[in-house]
Design a protein that fits this description.
mainly alpha, elongated, 4 helices, about 130 residues, about 5% strand, two-stranded antiparallel ribbon
Amino acid sequence: MPSAYPEVDRVPLSLAAVLVIGEITPAALHAALSGLAQRQRVTADNIANVNTPGFLAGRTDFESSLRGALRSGETPQISGGSVARSLEPTNTNGNNVNLDAETLIATETGLRYQLALSALDGKYNSIRTALRTQ
């Protein structure tokens, strides 16, 4: 028997839909998550190549472009940021990956990612709550 209150197709809120609501916070969080994901990939690549002769560690920078966009009031662009090779001193085999430093970067990046996800989840929960109360 069909329900008197049939389910409607649910459309997930996209980043564009949230921006229409007038909040820049979700865009900044999405940009941060994208940059952090890129940093995690680069760090994993660094760790995987810890013993590769001549390998230079990669470094990801997304914070400067994110900070610049927020300061100027622009909507942050969602990209992984820029990746450059580290200019830190190398070992005798030409490799400059420091496993301790990479492990610390990976841990810190994971914690920042969790924090950004929690903030984004809280933002979407408040939007969902506001939509339910009307």
